[in-house]
Protein: GlsB/YeaQ/YmgE family stress response membrane protein
Organism: Nitratidesulfovibrio liaohensis
Amino acid sequence: MSIIWFLLLGALAGWLAANLMQGRGFGFLGNMAVGVVGAVLGGFLFRMVGVHGGGMMGSLVTAVVGAIVLLFLVGLIKRN
């Protein structure tokens, strides 16, 4: 059951990040992938600076921040 929550959280994080980045989304499955990868990236980045959030809201914030960073990096790569 936790994998379903992880994927739903990833989908929500990807959707939020795409909306915050002015429509840089990739559809439902693409946003889910961005959110899941963003969750991993956000967790890594937050650990590097010594920040950790607990619970569902902390996980969502971590995933959204990671997804925003990921979308920003993808945007930089696409421009070149």
